[in-house]
Design goal:
Layout (H helix, E strand, L loop, with lengths): L33 E5 L2 E5 L12 E4 L2 E4 L1 E6 L5 E8 L2 E7 L12 E10 L2 E10 L5 E10 L5 H5 L13 E5 L2 E5 L3 E8 L4 E5 L2 E10 L4 E12 L20 E4 L4 H13 L2 E4 L2 E7 L9 E2 H10 L6 H12 L19 E2 L4 E2 L6 E2 L2 E2 L5 H14 L4 H6 L1 H12 L45 E2 H20 L5 H18 L1 E4 L2 E4 L2 E2 L5 E2 L17 H11 L5 E2 L2 E2 L19 E2 H13 L3 H17 L7 E7 L2 E4 L8 H4 L1 H10 L1 E4 L4 E4 L10 E8 L2 E7 L5 E4 L6 E4 L2 E2 L1
Parallel strand pairs: 36-40
Antiparallel strand pairs: 1-2, 2-3, 3-4, 5-10, 6-7, 7-8, 8-9, 9-16, 10-15, 11-12, 12-13, 13-16, 14-15, 17-37, 18-19, 20-21, 21-24, 22-23, 25-28, 26-27, 28-29, 30-31, 32-33, 33-34, 35-36, 37-38, 38-39, 40-41
């Protein structure tokens, strides 16, 4: 995702108790589950709709599993699976009760199960429809339980018993059930009232009698309402209503593009959370189920890629992070003055298998500070109100100070990281698994690590800060530009390597200052930051779209000829949706239009294979012409879903600078998705529509008065 604290717990788990029998715990796999989400709540179930005990499935609220079992039986038998689907907060399941109705091969009793996550509640409805010749009488039995497991324990593989089991009490309250946990309580009601409601320990059995006449339907509805009974560090509520995306509509010759955008925006909207310190501000939670909270890098990139659809998400994300910007030095949390946090959780996070132990607010990121600055600059260019921008200038200055001092811990003048706590992240760029920074021969680099993209992000941020400060008549622009130029020079001098793959950018410098010469997608994040000469840009574009890194479904995180390459490895050869989208954006910004189109169409091909709901990452190694899922991947995930915005930006060639009175629309020719029309683009308060015909000629309507629209480099 997003920002995974560690790769699959399989790779780090150890058995510390010699008396414990059996294999060590394993991180649960998610790729076969049905997942829906709404803000702070997510529901994971089997494809038949059951939440099966003894698994990672459940209804999670604020990272606590309040429902660990919810199974449906009709006359003692589970309905048979037919089809299922999910988008945003909704899930639907079509099943068949093969033990009811007419005998023979044709199913005559259909079971339609729907799930909706409302704010504060999960509503589940089971409808029986009979095509049978005679009246169908069936006893529907629901078995329900909640175990209060923490998401960190479940992720570590403790899917049955959390390491520290909270007190869970379930009791009947008339025709309802009340379950109390450490920080929450649930009240479950039923319509119609059940024929029987029994509580046996921590499990409830609910019985409902259904009578269905031929051609008719009968239904029962369960509502699970969750309330907080004590406060946490981040009591964030759903924020879907805070963004104005209802008017977005995409029509394209390529029939895949519209559902990509529709599904992605639905999912992203329902990953939004409100800042409890100011509920007007929203941000994108990183992904469900493991990271349904604020992650600096993920939330920033998601907001950045969605800027063509408005600045509300960007402005909220900027302010949420600014409120938590570092003010002191604290090695345990990695906090430093001016530093933007990596993640904010409701309570301390513990992975009992890997040893990862993080405080609720953790700052272990080398790149979120630069990305925050760039998001502020780009949000200003897309029309974020100037008074809101000015209000964040103290945070901008603090961020610039960190980028040019504390973030560069020694005399070589590079941003780098090294976890000194022993319980934090070993790697603090977006590739944050322990084995992600590799040499060409495959061995893992030693820290401290100075990532190539972190330097490039900082150059872009400092130059952007200079433009913003100068435009607003503020001091400090010249100093920021000077720092940017020095860092750009150091990158140019120290990061280029020659290997059997040719001349390319290294992933990083290691603790000895040597260039780590693995061939990886990191170089794609350097594109468009203002670091590269035209010749260097050509070289990077050629490597990224060569056989080692680009396949038919996206850009690999590590080249196929690199030692340690694994197409399903977390950061060692898999494809990450957002990583590929960032490469496409960078190629477009550098003028590599054909290459950017090739990467964008590969990304759309992957979306189709995943039913237009991108996972966090996947393997591009095809299985019968389709990519293979990474089994533990979050889905949906914020910067994956936001990659739809990147596709639109690339296809239309969008660039906005509202303070300068300019909107550029320079479509790729030939258009990668054929004729294309995008409605609901936002430039300040204006709603804009862009149409591109099959020859690449563009038309823009709705641009604000006084804004010059430049089509393909010429004014409209």
């Amino acid at each position: 995702m997003s920002d995974h604290e560690a790769a699959d717990a399989d790779t780090t788990a150890t058995t510390t108790d010699s008396a414990t029998a059996g294999p060590p715990p394993r991180q649960p796999w998610l790729h076969q589950l049905n997942v829906c989400v709404n803000g702070n709540a997510t529901a994971l179930s089997s494809t038949g709709g059951d939440i099966e005990p003894g698994t990672a499935q459940g209804l999670y609220v604020d990272d606590v599993r309040v429902l660990s079992e919810a199974t449906v039986r009709l006359e003692g038998e589970a309905p048979a699976f037919v089809a299922e689907g999910a988008s945003g907060p909704r899930a639907e399941f079509v099943l068949s009760a093969r033990n009811l109705g007419n005998p023979g091969p044709d199913p005559t009793v259909e079971v339609h199960r729907t799930r909706l996550l409302e704010d504060g509640a999960m509503v589940e409805r089971v409808v029986l429809t009979s095509r049978a010749a005679d009246t169908v009488r069936a006893r529907l039995v629901l078995e329900l339980a909640g175990d209060g497991a923490a998401i960190g324990s479940v992720k570590a593989g403790h899917v049955v018993h959390p390491e520290v089991a909270p007190q869970v009490v379930t009791a009947p309250d008339g025709d309802a059930l009340v379950t109390t946990f450490e920080r929450h309580a649930t009240r479950t009601t039923f319509d119609p009232a059940p024929a029987a409601l029994l509580v046996r320990g921590d499990r409830a059995v609910v019985e409902v009698d259904l009578v269905v006449e031929p051609g008719e339907s009968a239904a029962t509805t369960m509502r699970v309402e969750t309330t907080r009974t004590s406060a946490s560090v981040l009591d964030a509520d759903p924020g879907r209503a805070a963004v104005a995306w209802d008017g977005v509509r995409v029509v394209a010759d390529d029939p895949r593009l519209a559902p990509v955008v529709d599904h992605s925006m639905d999912d992203l909207r329902h990953l939004l959370l409100r800042d409890p310190d100011d509920r007007a501000d929203v941000f994108a939670a990183a992904g469900t189920p493991w990271y349904l909270t604020l992650f600096g890098r993920d939330s920033i990139w998601a907001a950045r890629m969605m800027l063509p659809f408005g600045t509300d998400l960007a402005a909220g994300t900027l302010r949420v992070l600014a409120r938590r910007q570092g003010t002191r030095d604290d090695p345990r949390s990695a906090e430093a003055p001016g530093k933007i946090p990596h993640e904010l959780r409701r309570t301390a996070y513990l992975d009992p298998e890997s040893g990862l132990a993080l405080p609720p607010v953790y700052y272990g990121t080398v790149d979120a500070t630069a990305l925050w600055v760039t998001l502020l600059v780009e949000a200003w260019q897309w029309g974020m109100p100037q008074d809101e921008v000015r209000a964040l200038l103290p945070n901008l200055r603090a961020a610039v100070q960190w980028l040019t001092t504390t973030g560069q811990p020694d005399e070589d003048g590079l941003l780098k990281y090294l976890d000194t706590s022993g319980t934090g992240l070993a790697n603090q760029g977006w590739k944050d698994s322990g084995d992600s920074i590799r040499w060409r021969d495959g061995h893992v680099a030693d820290g401290p690590i100075a990532l190539v993209e972190a330097q490039a992000y900082a150059v872009e941020a400092l130059n952007g800060a200079a433009r913003l400060l100068r435009a607003l008549g503020e001091e400090g622009a010249d100093e920021a530009e000077k720092e940017a130029e020095g860092l750009r020079t150091r990158l140019s001098e120290r990061y280029w390597v020659q290997t059997d793959a040719g001349r390319h950018l290294a992933i990083a410098l290691d603790g000895r200052g040597a260039a780590v010469d693995g061939l990886a997608s990191n170089m794609g994040h350097v594109l468009g930051t203002g670091v590269l000469t035209p010749a260097e840009s050509d070289s990077v574009a050629a490597q990224l779209t060569g056989d080692e890194l680009l396949d038919e479904f996206g850009v690999r995180t590590l080249g196929s000829g690199n030692g340690g390459f694994n197409p399903i490895g977390y950061h060692t050869g898999s494809i990450w949706t957002h990583d590929t989208a960032i490469v496409a954006l960078g190629l477009a910004r550098e003028g590599h239009r054909a290459e950017s189109a090739a990467v964008a169409t590969a990304l759309v091909a992957s979306a189709e294979a995943f039913d237009y709901r991108w996972p966090e990452l996947y393997s591009g190694l095809p299985m019968m012409g389709r990519p293979s899922p990474y089994p533990a991947s979050c889905r949906p995930q914020a910067w994956s879903a936001a990659s739809a915005g990147a596709l639109v930006t690339v296809a239309l060639g969008l660039r906005a600078d509202l303070p300068a009175g300019v909107l550029e629309v320079d479509p790729v020719v030939p258009p990668p998705f054929g004729a294309l029309r995008v409605e609901g683009l936002r430039l300040g308060d204006a709603t804009v529509t862009v149409s591109v015909d099959r020859d690449g000629h563009a038309e823009v309507t709705g641009a604000p008065e006084g804004v010059e629209v430049r089509l393909g480099g010429t004014s409209a």
